């Protein structure tokens, strides 16, 4: 009698030689894959734990400066070059792949207050405490030559910052007022003031290239239009802003680093209320730089740490610190979105990974597929309490940790007091003011 | 194919067959202490030992390298060469065992009414539950959610999880004691047979009975195949039914086979159309067309895996081991929103802040020009949106019955007064 039953030929399922790949027949019927949610959850938990295990962001420390690093500039055409200016007037050009200094020049007597590169990458500008603006060539002098600037401009007052236009041969300096210069001229094309004494930084907008933003010492941020040669509007905050940075992807968004430990992301069209307040630092925020994707930015603070914030969130996703790194003055995010450079006042420039657990170098396709899968799993289960707890956990130095705890207690106390006041007073007499609006004093057009 | 058993001794010994493992190995155990492990497809013997004690149940652990034997006094774990690896004295008087593969847990039911869970990857006892149900001789496992089903002598079947000291569900299934319990591989149907000679099939999602069959001799052992066929051992006859939850009970079973002696256990071979039966004179394997799953997934269970593949699979399985705290009646619960916690957290937040951050602000009508923004028209616009939450919209099906009577009326009705 013929009976039709399952019969399999082992040759169809076992490989012929050791050189062949193993055969892996698949059946995606969910009945054959029970417990899909708990198993995926365990995989997500493992992925989150491994991410913390492999989170080793510190790459290298570039030392060579003989005084604190005051400012940094990125080379627009070369990913491996970075320029830094120190507090003793020295400017160094570094090669990041070899992690060494390729050129040193004594640019100023006194601090190098600002450094910026021209958009073509062939030259750069520096300003210093000796009231000069100097224009240098990017390539060093030939053998036996001396370091000489291409051009020196003497001013009457100290210049505190410089930034170059992203497309035209125009640059802007700030100090007493904001001056816009043409590269060929020795006097500014126009000077923009709005009744304030000293301006600490100026930045050109990379997308709408005729717009400028500046931070002044009387707690305001002023926006200028180069075509009209007039200031556009200003917003007055609670405390002074140290620097600002424009979002390279969104034309109208900029983030300002403030003395009250916060960063404010503004939409320049609606300055009445910031788009987001980023609260995580415990001391004054000194510098901010955007990632080339425009989705995140990095901030350097007087508490000896740097933090990476997403643009749409109020809390940082990452904090980098080392025992050896003291107050961080300047920070930059490289143009390939992978590295962060920070210069601190203990004369070192440190190179960090932007994604702490990322594997650098070329990834084999299987590795890449596994990493993508793990990334997706982490995203899918990110809200589960155990996974959230592990993903959020970061070690903080004792000073920052205790200061943050104290600030939290203070904030809670203030909130409770306000709540009690509201409860025991006439309803409607104390309206709810959103946290965003609390720090803005006024907007002036 | 029938294996006569001269080695089983003179008096009828009762071989028991635990699951033919997902990796096509067969474990045979005789009541007198004879234990044999073999690769069923190539018929090569792995080991054959005599443990010198009564064997009540045997089962493979996560791979074909280890198996557990419940002997008269204690629980022993052996290597596939027959070397004794562990003797677990805390597990005494074990009558039945079930291995939960994705949790690496061995659930054991003892004659004193204790249900114990052993985590074999770390070797710790996860839970000991005093079931207060008397002698636990009937045990089954729901492969879809790792819940253990125990049958009791008062006709109830109780469902257990290692996290809860009380049974999750208690179902009254039979009027006499329960003789056998089996759950199908998708976890939707449970078949039970009792001393009242009835074979009942229940829907496990609603805990409602679906079918009830009267068998002249009650079924002592039940087993579901991968494709839903139910095998019942009634004395010395093995009967197979079609996927019984889907079809009404028919008077004749799909297949039936008479064995030389009474059957003592039966299991289907995974991915093959074969049913293995252990009876008084040995082991018989029966061909059952349509019982096995034809297409296996090599990343889950691969009957043709090499040693290297098995080692890698073992590492991945251990990494994915589900902790016992996640065993619940609904395995997909982790993927759902925990609405209760969300509500609690929201209330705490409202209390702390003093206002509800998620509350929508009051509707403010937009300012219109050309005199359309007078006080009266603003009030009219506000009233349109007022009490929006309290409104009960008429549901769509209510409108359809109005349409039907209209069509049924004759067309000339409209000229009638």
TrEMBL record, chain A:
WD repeat ranges per the UniProt record = 62-104, 278-319, 321-362
Q: What is its pathway?
A: Protein modification; protein ubiquitination
Keyword rRNA processing in annotation: yes
Residue segments, region Disordered: 417-437
Q: For this UniProt entry, what's an example GO CC term?
A: nucleoplasm
Keywords linked to the UniProt accession: Nucleus, Repeat, Ribonucleoprotein, Ribosome biogenesis, rRNA processing, Ubl conjugation pathway, WD repeat
Q: Name one Pfam family in it.
A: Sof1
Bias class Basic residues marks the residues at 417-426
Coiled-coil intervals: none
Subcellular location field: Nucleus, Nucleolus
All residue ranges annotated as the Sof1-like protein domain in the record: 354-440
Q: Which SMART domains match?
A: WD40
GO MF terms, alphabetically ordered: nuclear estrogen receptor binding; ubiquitin-like ligase-substrate adaptor activity
Q: Which GO terms describe its biological process?
A: epigenetic programming in the zygotic pronuclei; maturation of SSU-rRNA from tricistronic rRNA transcript (SSU-rRNA, 5.8S rRNA, LSU-rRNA); negative regulation of phosphatidylinositol 3-kinase/protein kinase B signal transduction; oocyte growth; proteasome-mediated ubiquitin-dependent protein catabolic process; protein ubiquitination; spindle assembly involved in female meiosis
- InterPro entries, per this entry? Sof1, WD40/YVTN_repeat-like_dom_sf, WD40_repeat_CS, WD40_repeat_dom_sf, WD40_rpt, WD_repeat_DCAF13/WDSOF1
The family this protein is said to belong to: Belongs to the WD repeat DCAF13/WDSOF1 family.
Query: Which PANTHER family does the record match to this protein?
Result: DDB1- AND CUL4-ASSOCIATED FACTOR 13 (PTHR22851:SF0), U3 SMALL NUCLEOLAR RNA U3 SNORNA ASSOCIATED PROTEIN (PTHR22851)
Q: What is this protein called?
A: DDB1- and CUL4-associated factor 13
Report the source organism. Answer: Terrapene triunguis
UniProtKB/TrEMBL annotation, chain B:
Repeat keyword on record: yes
Signal sequence annotation: none
Spell out the residue ranges that the record assigns to WD repeats: 171-212
* Listed GO CC annotations: 90S preribosome; small-subunit processome
- Keyword Cytoplasm: yes or no? no
Its principal location? nucleus
Segments forming domain BING4 C-terminal: 253-331
Q: Which Pfam families does the UniProt record give?
A: BING4CT (PF08149), WD40 (PF00400)
Q: Which Gene3D superfamilies match?
A: YVTN repeat-like/Quinoprotein amine dehydrogenase
Location in the cell reads: Nucleus, Nucleolus
Which InterPro entries does the record cross-reference, listed alphabetically? BING4_C_dom, WD40/YVTN_repeat-like_dom_sf, WD40_repeat_dom_sf, WD40_rpt, WDR46/Utp7
User: What is said about its interaction partners and assembly?
Assistant: Part of the small subunit (SSU) processome, composed of more than 70 proteins and the RNA chaperone small nucleolar RNA (snoRNA) U3. Interacts with DDX21, NCL, NOP2 and EBNA1BP2.
Described by its record, this protein's role is as follows: Scaffold component of the nucleolar structure. Required for localization of DDX21 and NCL to the granular compartment of the nucleolus. Part of the small subunit (SSU) processome, first precursor of the small eukaryotic ribosomal subunit. During the assembly of the SSU processome in the nucleolus, many ribosome biogenesis factors, an RNA chaperone and ribosomal proteins associate with the nascent pre-rRNA and work in concert to generate RNA folding, modifications, rearrangements and cleavage as well as targeted degradation of pre-ribosomal RNA by the RNA exosome.
Give the protein name, as stated in the record: WD repeat-containing protein 46
Please report the organism this UniProt entry assigns to the protein. Answer: Terrapene triunguis (Three-toed box turtle)
Q: Top-down, what is the taxonomic lineage of the species of origin?
A: Eukaryota, Metazoa, Chordata, Craniata, Vertebrata
Underlying gene: WDR46
């Amino acid at each position: 009698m013929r009976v039709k039953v399952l019969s399999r030929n082992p040759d169809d399922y076992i490989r012929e030689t050791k050189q062949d790949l193993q055969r892996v027949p698949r059946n995606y019927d969910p009945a054959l894959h029970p417990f899909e949610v708990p198993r995926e959850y365990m995989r997500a938990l493992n992925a989150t734990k491994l991410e913390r295990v492999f989170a080793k962001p510190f790459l290298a420390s570039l030392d060579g400066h003989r005084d604190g690093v005051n400012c940094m500039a990125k080379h627009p055409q070369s990913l491996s070059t970075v320029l830094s200016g120190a507090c003793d007037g020295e400017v160094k050009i570094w090669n990041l792949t070899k992690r060494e200094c390729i050129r040193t020049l004594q640019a100023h007597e006194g601090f190098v207050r600002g450094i910026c590169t021209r958009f073509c990458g062939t030259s750069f500008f520096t300003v210093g405490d000796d009231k000069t603006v100097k224009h240098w060539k990017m390539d060093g002098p030939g053998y036996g030559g001396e370091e000489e600037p291409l051009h020196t401009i003497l001013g009457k007052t100290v210049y505190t910052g410089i930034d170059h236009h992203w497309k035209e041969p125009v640059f802007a300096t700030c100090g007493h007022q904001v001056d816009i210069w043409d590269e060929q001229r020795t006097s500014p094309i126009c000077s923009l003031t709005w009744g304030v004494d000293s301006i600490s930084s100026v930045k050109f907008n990379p997308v709408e290239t005729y717009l400028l933003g500046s931070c002044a010492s009387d707690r305001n941020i002023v926006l200028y239009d180069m075509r009209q040669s007039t200031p556009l509007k200003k917003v007055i905050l609670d405390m002074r802003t140290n620097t600002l940075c424009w979002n390279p992807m969104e034309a109208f968004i900029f983030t300002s680093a403030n003395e009250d430990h916060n960063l404010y992301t503004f939409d320049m069209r609606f300055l009445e209320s910031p788009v987001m307040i980023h609260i995580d630092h415990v001391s004054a925020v000194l510098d901010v730089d955007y990632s080339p994707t425009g989705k995140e930015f990095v901030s350097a603070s007087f508490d000896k740490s740097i933090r990476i914030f997403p643009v749409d969130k109020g809390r940082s996703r990452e904090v980098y610190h080392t025992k050896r790194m003291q107050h961080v003055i300047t920070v930059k995010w490289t143009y390939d979105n992978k590295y962060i450079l920070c210069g601190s006042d203990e004369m070192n420039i440190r190179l960090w990974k932007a994604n702490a657990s990322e594997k650098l170098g070329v990834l084999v396709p299987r590795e890449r597929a596994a990493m993508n899968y793990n990334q997706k799993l982490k995203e899918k289960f990110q809200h589960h309490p155990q996974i959230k707890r592990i993903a959020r956990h970061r070690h903080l130095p004792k000073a920052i940790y205790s200061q943050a705890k104290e600030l939290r207690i203070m904030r809670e106390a203030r909130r409770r007091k306000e709540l009690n006041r509201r409860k025991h007073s006439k309803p409607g007499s104390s309206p709810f003011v959103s946290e965003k609006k609390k720090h803005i004093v006024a907007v002036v057009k | 194919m029938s294996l006569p058993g001269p080695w089983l001794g003179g008096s009828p010994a009762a071989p028991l067959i635990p699951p033919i493992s997902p990796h096509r190995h067969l474990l045979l155990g005789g009541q007198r202490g004879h234990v044999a492990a073999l690769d069923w497809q190539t018929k090569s013997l792995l080991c054959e030992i005599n443990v010198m004690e009564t064997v009540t149940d045997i089962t493979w652990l996560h791979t074909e390298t280890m198996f557990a034997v419940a002997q008269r006094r204690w629980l022993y774990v052996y290597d596939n060469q027959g070397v004794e690896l562990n003797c677990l004295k805390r597990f005494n008087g074990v009558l039945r065992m079930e291995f939960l593969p994705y949790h690496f847990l061995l659930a054991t039911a003892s004659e004193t009414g204790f249900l114990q869970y052993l985590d074999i990857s770390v070797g710790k006892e996860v839970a000991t539950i005093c079931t207060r149900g008397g002698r636990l001789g009937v045990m089954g496992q729901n492969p879809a959610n790792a819940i253990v089903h125990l049958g009791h002598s008062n006709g109830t079947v109780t469902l257990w999880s290692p996290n809860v000291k009380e049974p999750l569900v208690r179902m009254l299934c039979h009027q006499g004691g329960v003789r056998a319990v089996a759950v199908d591989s998708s976890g939707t149907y449970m078949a039970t047979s009792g001393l009242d000679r009835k074979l009942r099939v229940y829907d496990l999602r609603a805990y409602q009975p679906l079918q009830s069959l009267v068998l002249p001799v009650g079924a002592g052992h039940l087993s579901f195949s991968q494709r839903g066929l139910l095998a019942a051992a009634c004395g010395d006859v093995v009967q197979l039914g079609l996927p019984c939850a889907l079809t009404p009970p028919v008077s004749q079973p799909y297949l039936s086979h008479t064995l030389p002696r009474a059957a003592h256990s039966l299991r289907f071979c995974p991915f093959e159309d074969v049913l293995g039966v252990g009876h008084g004179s040995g082991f018989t394997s029966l061909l059952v067309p349509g019982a096995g799953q034809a297409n296996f997934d090599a990343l889950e269970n691969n009957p043709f895996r090499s040693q290297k593949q098995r080692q890698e699979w073992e590492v991945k399985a251990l990494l994915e081991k589900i902790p016992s705290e996640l065993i619940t009646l609904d395995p997909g619960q982790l993927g759902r929103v925990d609405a209760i916690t969300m509500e609690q957290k929201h209330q705490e937040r409202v209390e702390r802040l003093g206002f509800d951050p998620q509350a929508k602000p009051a509707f403010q009508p937009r300012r219109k020009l050309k005199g359309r923004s007078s006080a009266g028209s603003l009030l009219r616009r506000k009233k349109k949106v007022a009490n929006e939450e309290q409104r009960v919209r008429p549901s769509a099906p209510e409108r359809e019955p109005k349409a039907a009577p209209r069509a049924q009326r004759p067309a000339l009705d409209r000229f009638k007064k």
